[in-house]
Specification:
Porin, disordered N terminus, about 300 residues
């Protein structure tokens, strides 16, 4: 009898989880630290397409997420400036390899931008989807962003997905200080992001409204010295069907001027994401190779000038 009750309870829990997952957007590549309020390079295509509209120069990322055992099975490529394109390949997920391809556009100026992306997939029963995002920087020290994911209500395994909302705010406190060492202001950035999702009532699963389950992420980005930046994210524990324990992510990035290397790893889990990025803007860094200037004097030209003078 106890075994029967145990099996029954397990079946009910499994049904609840599957009902919720059927209404949730599938996860894709693990990205480096990001925020819908501050990410404004090529990664904005996947985080908040409005960031593509910020005139920050073009960039290309090669992403290599890794598992706790150190295996690199998934990979992705993202490039963009105004227009962006991304390809993601996941081979570590149950059910075989699945891929997602995304393109997007961003518009506006440094104060307010908006953008959208369109993605299609293989290896998973999901309709193509549209996301829409906005980003505003009312003051130099403050930025806010919002993304509506799946605005066309795509179907996943036959079930229509509700719109998911990502909201974020970024604060650059050093922008308030007129100190030479505090420039640029991005040397210290605090972010708060919130993911809001809604679930319709399903067999064995009660309906959940957007504010019944909010997944927060608190982030800190600090440039230790020009060219070396530390990253830290904390996602507190949440309850419910989509419950997870407290998650801590930490990483370092090394900027060599037009190239950047970095890794972002989850504490205790051992999984994370490594990446290499190239940019068309040369950034300040102590790690840049020193280029010596060499002046070549042609002695023949000098002799000719002396003869002309005679």
């Amino acid at each position: 009898m106890k075994k029967t009750l145990l099996i029954f309870n397990f079946a009910v829990v499994l049904l609840q989880v599957q009902s919720a997952l059927a209404q949730d957007h599938p996860g894709w590549l693990t990205l480096p630290q990001n925020s819908v309020a501050t990410t404004d390079d090529a990664l904005a295509l996947l985080v908040n397409p409005a960031g593509l509209g910020v005139d920050g120069g073009g960039a290309c990322y090669f992403l290599a997420p890794y598992q706790s055992d150190g295996h690199f099975e998934d990979w992705g490529f993202v490039a963009g400036e105004g227009f962006g394109f991304a390809a993601e390949v996941l081979r570590s997920q149950p059910g075989g390899t699945r891929r997602r391809y995304t393109w997007g556009l961003g518009f506006g100026d440094d104060d307010f931008t908006w953008g959208f992306n369109y993605s299609w997939t293989t290896g998973i029963d999901r309709q193509n989807t549209w996301d829409f995002g906005i980003m505003e920087r009312p003051w130099s020290f403050l930025s806010v962003g919002a993304v509506a994911r799946g605005i066309n209500h795509p179907r996943l395994n036959g079930s229509k997905l509700p719109i998911g909302w990502d909201l974020g705010i970024g604060l650059r406190p050093l922008e308030l200080l007129d100190w030479k060492w505090a420039r640029p202001s991005e040397r210290l950035t605090f972010t708060v992001d919130a993911k809001l999702k809604r679930y319709d009532e399903q067999p064995g699963q009660a309906a959940q409204k957007y504010f019944d389950e909010i997944d927060y992420t608190y982030g800190i980005r600090s440039e230790i010295v020009p060219g070396i930046t530390g990253h830290l994210d904390l996602s507190p524990e949440i309850k419910g069907v989509k419950a997870h324990d407290s998650r801590l992510w930490a990483g370092l990035s090394f900027n060599f001027g037009e190239m950047e290397l970095g890794a972002f790893q989850r504490s205790g889990n051992g999984s994370g994401s490594a990446y290499i990025a190239t940019r068309d803007i040369d950034r300040e860094s102590w790690l840049k190779p020193i280029r010596e200037k060499v002046i070549i004097i042609d002695s023949n030209d000098r002799d000719d000038d002396e003869e002309d003078a005679d």
